[in-house]
From TrEMBL:
Pathway: Protein modification. The keyword Amino-acid biosynthesis does not apply. InterPro entries: Ub_conjugating_enzyme, UBC, UBQ-conjugating_AS, UBQ-conjugating_enzyme/RWD. It catalyses: S-ubiquitinyl-[E1 ubiquitin-activating enzyme]-L-cysteine + [E2 ubiquitin-conjugating enzyme]-L-cysteine = [E1 ubiquitin-activating enzyme]-L-cysteine + S-ubiquitinyl-[E2 ubiquitin-conjugating enzyme]-L-cysteine. It comes from Oryctolagus cuniculus (Rabbit). This is Ubiquitin-conjugating enzyme E2 G1.
Length: 186
């Protein structure tokens, strides 16, 4: 069942992102007829091991968004403590609302219906500041803690060098759309 509130929230989020683009982040629909599935490109932030990398991910929003969080999955390879080996992102803000059955996270750190698409973009900050206390990828977390400038850095550098094949085309098209919509509103 499609929820009108979720469609409205997602459409508003897309409009806001087009009006106020976020540096290092670009988003578009995977299918123009499906507001619930987005493809995002994240540019590795400056002064991090991920600098210069281009990482493609998919955001899948539930039909009852914003009551429940989206799922985020990297499509391109990324070596990070908070991204499991299948690409699924595991950070507090994307966890179901309520109490953490393991007692690690406070309810206010988890998803709240007041969060917006813009809030989700905070995932970029995890590239600069991984959470090694609650890893999705235990091997990456161990390397990050014990040998951050050795094996971990080498594996991240390998991921940074790999570029998604069609990401530059998507980014270019997104920039054209942003330029066009900015010109129309002026």
């Amino acid at each position: 069942r499609t929820d009108i509130r979720s469609l409205t929230e997602l459409a508003s989020g897309r409009i806001e992102l087009n009006k106020n683009p976020v540096e290092g982040f670009s988003a578009g629909l995977i299918d123009d007829n499906d507001l619930y599935r987005w493809e995002v490109l994240i540019i590795g932030p400056p002064d991090t091991l991920y600098e210069g990398g281009v990482f493609k991910a998919h955001l899948t929003f539930p039909k009852d968004y914003p009551l429940r969080p989206p799922k985020m999955k990297f499509i391109t390879e990324i070596w990070h403590p908070n991204v499991d080996k299948n690409g699924d992102v595991c950070i507090s803000i994307l966890h179901e609302p309520g109490e953490d059955k393991y007692g690690y996270e406070k309810p206010e750190e988890r998803w709240l219906p007041i969060h917006t698409v813009e809030t989700i973009i905070s995932v970029i900050s995890m590239l600069a500041d991984p959470n090694g206390d609650s890893p999705a990828n235990v091997d990456a977390a161990k390397e990050w803690r014990e040998d951050g400038n050795g094996e971990f850095k080498r594996k991240v550098a390998r991921c940074v060098r790999k570029k998604p094949r069609d990401c530059f085309r998507v980014t270019f098209i997104q920039q054209l759309v942003t330029s066009f919509t900015s010109g129309v509103s002026n």
